[in-house]
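With this grant's support, we have settled on a layout for protein records. An illustrative entry appears below exactly as we store it:
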Amino acid sequence: MPFHTLRLPLKDSPCKIVYVCRNVKDVLVPLWHFRCAHLEKEVDMESLFESLCEGVGSFGQFWEHVLSYWRGSLENPQRVLFMRYEEMKSAPSAQVKRLAEFLGCPFTEEEAEHGSVDKIVEFCSLRNLSGMEVNNVPHFTFFRKGEVGDFKNHLTPEMENKIDMTIEEKYKGSGLKF
């Protein structure tokens, strides 16, 4: 099913979708590291950058993919929750509460007072998840830094500007901002 038709089956579907989106600049660097580790050779950052700017990603047309979930969340907010990675990093407790409410199981006052939200945030932290034995898969790099803005250490100002202009063009009029 093409990504742009995502919103059509949602109207009658009982399922709930949680879509986590990350700024494409911060997607590029871990994707590059992952591909280098997976292929066990150096991957050209410039060609990966150009592919991403053109919208070619692992799951099809990247820009339309993101917009389809964004539109779905606007058209059917009871069924599609659009979350930004940057918001999850800056306010993890608020985002865990938001997710729980969306799923129909909000935290009780007692749970909140006893630190349930903080325990979930800690359990789901990159530090904790990356240390779990189940996630220690040889030859793959599933966990890296998880930082917002690390792209500044890898992209040239020209690359950053090109992505910014592409984001502006692709998401224009949608209300989606990064």
